[in-house]
Amino acid sequence: MKATFMYGAGDVRVETVPDPVIQSPTDAIVRTVRTCVCGSDLHPYHSMAASEHGTSMGHELIAIVEEVGSAVTTVKPGDFVVAPFAFQDNTCVFCREGVQTACIHGGWYGTPAAAGLQAEFARIPQADGSLVVVPGVDPADADESLLASLLTLSDVYLTGYHAAHMGQVGPGKTVTVVGDGAVGLGAVLASRRFRAGRIILMGRHTDRTDLGVEFGATDVVAERGEDGIARVMDLTDGEGSHIVLEAVGHLPAYEQAYGIVRPGGIISRVGVPQYEDAPIGFGSLFGKNARLAGGPAPVRAYLEPAIQQVLNGEIDPGRVFDRTVALDDIATGYAAMDAREALKVMVTV
User: Fold this and answer.
1) How many structural domains are present in the chain?
2) pTM for the full model?
3) CB–CB of 259/223 below 8 Å?
4) Are 58 and 108 found together in one domain?
5) Residues of the chain with pLDDT under 50
6) Exposure on the CB side of residue 28, measured as CA atoms within 13 A
7) 40-43 contacts: CB < 8 A, separation 24 or more?
8) For the segment 199-230, what is each residue's pLDDT rounded down to a tens digit?
9) Which structural domain range is residue 122 located in?
10) Kind and range of the H or E element at 151?
């Protein structure tokens, strides 16, 4: 089969490798319907050291089940499924508490535990806990907009949803979303579903913020840094935002977040942090009695209702995909997202 590997910063290659096989009774083998490039894939695209051995890439997938291990009971060959970006058994103590990304028996794709999902086929560990069937849909007959929206449930929309959930977005609250990427736009859409009173989107790419307005943003702030903080404070009469959803992962975005959070407010981070040390002292969180929440989204916790919302036409998060490439051309998708020529790239196989 063909699969995607990264050999260093900017060096993405598609190679032919052996098809995956069942390694454990709890595994499933799936055939990719759609995969995609994630904003978090761009972090190694910028900084990965060159290596003779490529790193298997990708963690977002909708697929058809091809084969299951002897212990798998909830999915069968022929099922159309969504695969969350992490695998989990969905039965351990942390899964039962709704933190599936901390599963005792779980893990991540693109690691020694499981190859990446930007490939023609994939092995899914803990298939019973990791795959969710899309009922009544044959992907061969489904339109692209439906497939795109289902694909966002593998990661970006439900990561944005997790940000809103952990931030305790609710009726009448002022929410500021930092970042106009696919996760940030997902956070806008989720905040509208949580009936936020006001949604401020901080982003400077007009095509993205225009979509954000369609998703529910009431205000757009293009300024960054101190100017961005001042603009949000002006919009909120100097009070700040009840909730800040940080969807970038870089320190300047976090600094903006604590600069605009209201006293007693919550910062919910879901952008994968590209730094180790974050200020939490008097001038950032402590002095405001502000709380810090968020983390890797337990997508599995939200999947069944989100699938139904997509099928019912209640949400259309797939609009974040603005370019489609074939797997053989996935390197051009990485380059387009890196150059901000594409918001999010879907990949066909």
Assistant:
1) 2
2) 0.96
3) no
4) yes
5) none
6) 31
7) 40/249, 40/272, 41/334, 42/334, 42/337, 42/338, 43/249, 43/272, 43/274
8) 999 999 999 999 999 999 999 999 999 999 99
9) 2-155+298-348
10) helix 144-152
